[in-house]
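Progress against Task 2.4 (sequence-to-structure conversion) is shown through the following example record, which the project officer requested during the mid-term review.
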Amino acid sequence: MNAKRGSRWAIGIGAGLAILLVIATLLLAAFPWGMFKDRIEARLSARIGKPVTISTMTREDRLSFHPVVRLTDMRVPQPDWAKGDGDLARIGEARVGFSALALLTGGPVVETLDLRRARLNFYRAADGRESWSGERSGGDERKGRRPALRSLTVSDSRVAYRDDKRGRSMDAALAVDGKGLRLSGKGDVRGYPVTVTASGAPILGHKAGTRWPFRAEIAGDAVGLTFDGMMDGPLDIGHLRGKVTGHAIDLRVLDAIIEAGLPGTQPVRLTAQVVRERPDWIIESLEGTIGRSEIAGHATVRKREGRTRIDGVIRAAQLDFNDLSSDEGRRKAAAKRARLGDRLIPDTAIDLRKMARTDGRLAIQADRLLWPGSSPFRSLKGVLSLERSRLVVEPLRMDLTRGVLSGRMAVDQRDGGPRLDLALDLRSARLLDFFPETRIDGGLVGRIALNGPGRTIRQAVGQSSGTIALVAKDGSIPARTAALMGQDVGKGLTIDKDKMAVLRCMVARFDVKGGVARTNPVLIDTSRAQTRATGTIRLSDEALALTLSGQPKQGSLLRLKGTVPIQGTIKAPDIQVPKEARSAKGIIKMIGDAIGGDKVPRASDADCDALARSAMR
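Structure tokens generated for the chain above:
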């Protein structure tokens, strides 16, 4: 009897639960969603920071797990800080179909959307704030849900966009219907006019799980970009792939569209295959030209925890470093040269402030280096590693006409301003390749080890400490030059200009402290004379304060006594010829000394091997 009663109780409870489930299901299917208007307004208002209003919100169907709600005169204001004209969004009418069950399970909710008389007005401020973003967590780093839209229609609508951070704007008509998506309008990129168009396949009837073709184009004479590709689903901008082509008068202008932090350059044309797997970008088969430079490569861009990591390979069939400056940059550099004079040390920026949140590894190779004039540098290869404001280029190798310059360069900005660290070795080179006009040759080796603070290479070297050493041996030198370096004016002016002397060694070591390079030693030893230089070079402006003294190894015809000061700069030395060499009286005195048999101590051969070892220590 008790067993029968327990069984009836169980059946009753089960039946009651089933009835409750049916009632709950019917209530969900028939729920009056319009009653949530105030709550939706409140949640949107909290997100935007200003009151969001909806005139009416009513349910159109009576019983369905995929209800359709109609909203009229929906207004979303701009944030207080935004400068954009009008509201962020104003929609005359919106019909929204969604999954009621998804509200409970947490899946994609909105399934159909019909917008009429929509006016969307997006604005990004110079500081990067976006009027459409609100309070976000994770930003672009979030994987995001794939859109669940089965149907989207938009009519009598426009989209406006202004970006004060990147200098771009757009105002375009937008329509989505059975023929597909169409956007058409005008805008500008950094002040250059463009037309903006986009098109996509119909969304209604699109088969789930198949890709959705689209095309977007920004067209203009000064800058342009096209993207022909596929999204994994309609409007799934987080998952897409396709071919990108771009052109611009300057890579910085094109960067206003792609936002990769690229510098100003000569005119550029690029093509690439691009894959977007949010939050990552994969760039493959990159090819193009910048000025007369030809580049190719691939890269992967990843965003994690507020940081961007770029890993890839860039190879140039030919590279002209001048192509990496825009016309504006070239004008500024020319004006600076006119003001300060020509300089040997480059003024290349090494400030990493704009890359504080960027890391990565980039292998670079230039098969052929192009120069406006003669240069011994023929090719370049290196690996750039950037980790939390510390850039290291290692290994770094530049092949010369003869020989190799290799080593390491680092820029450390972890503790304030950038600090440059250079460690370069020169081997198997020839002196003639660097200074062909002098006709001085010899096997050349060298070493540079400098460390100093500065926002450009020139500033950092101008405040650096370390050593600079060059050694040339077993070569040749014009006999006239060798005689003059021994201060033998007579032979320097009378020897056959084609006659050559032996360059036994040229040893130059500079100890650098606080940007001042001091000779230790600088010596040139030839078969005709020996010359020593003493003094300093101020690296900040390359100013010379040197004194030359030469001793002949043979009898002198007319010898200049004393020392010869050298001032000016490295690129424009100013040799201060002593007064006696510039006056008739001085020349007559030198002749008299020669006739009178004025004995001049002759120099002996220097121990070149020992001097070279000491200089390169």
